Amino acid sequence: MSESPAVPKQNDAATRPGLIRVALQSPSFMVGIVLTLCFTLAALVSFVWTPFDVTQLVISDKLKTPSGLHWFGTDNFGRDIFSMVMVGARTSIAVALIAVSIGICAGVPLGLLAAARHGSLLDEVIMRTNDLVFAFPALLMAIMITAVFGPGAINAIIAIGIFNIPVFARLARGAALSLWTRDYVLAARVSGKGPARISAEHILPNITNLLIVQGTIQFSLGILAEAGLAYVGLGTQPPLPSWGRMLSDAQTMIYIAPHMAIFPGLAIVFTVLGLNLMGDGMRDIFDPKLRRAR
Question: Which terminus in the chain has less CB density within 10 A, N or C?
Answer without folding.
Answer: N
